[in-house]
């Protein structure tokens, strides 16, 4: 029997909604069965961030070479820095039958929607805009100016919600993780069912 390709799971949403927090919580759970794809970025590491763990930190020149060489599945310029997904890791992991989990901003997610239409696209939404603002301020990693840019971007990003297969509210981190796991499980069941029906049809049953 042929090995089923893994599922490409894309988690996106506005900056400050809690994508990183939810992703870290998901991957700290021992029964999580997805492989996290570590992104490349030209952003400077924040305190405590480790190269090759949080991101692969690259210079602008290195990043642009990766773009030219077609080594990125998608990339975006987000608030002055490049971010991108290494294509080789994603393909090799999916081919090995493992699910890959991407946590990326909305421009990159839209590119993947075009290239990988059978991916699973999940939008993480804040309970409200004011809560989103509070979270960005509360995190304390950006200057006021950067926060203002990110909130302006968030308004546009929220409009893209309807392009996704699912919207998950991040009211509580654990609840958001449970919802994501339930969606992935349901999607696997749906695909298995479709595959079975397709094979039965080919056999003329
Ligand atoms: N398109 C794209 N966005 C990414 C990638 N990796 C991270 N991001 C997104 O880039 C944005 C900024 O990330 P970061 O600077 O770490 O800030 P934070 O997520 O707000 O803590 C976030 O929305 C991330 O989800 C990637 O590989 N591609
Ligand atoms: N469900 C939640 N309830 C309250 N605060 C949250 C929740 N999820 C995340 N946060 C907080 O919001 C801030 C932004 O979260 P973060 O994961 O950095 O967002 P993103 O990766 O989407 O930019 C952080 O200070 C984080 O602790």
Automatic annotation (TrEMBL):
Role description: Essential for recycling GMP and indirectly, cGMP.
Keywords for the protein's UniProt record, in alphabetical order: ATP-binding, Cytoplasm, Kinase, Nucleotide-binding, Transferase
GO-annotated molecular function: ATP binding; GMP kinase activity
Keyword Transcription recorded: no
Domain of life: Bacteria
Reactions it catalyzes: GMP + ATP = GDP + ADP
SUPFAM superfamilies: P-loop containing nucleoside triphosphate hydrolases (SSF52540)
Protein name: Guanylate kinase
Gene source species: Rummeliibacillus stabekisii
Record keyword Metal-binding present: no
CDD domains named among the record's database cross-references: GMPK
Family from the record: Belongs to the guanylate kinase family.
Enzyme Commission number, as recorded: 2.7.4.8
A Pfam family that the UniProt record links to this protein: Guanylate_kin
Signal peptide from the UniProt entry: none
GO cellular component terms, semicolon-separated: cytosol
Binding residues annotated for ATP, in chain numbering: 13-20
Subcellular location: Cytoplasm
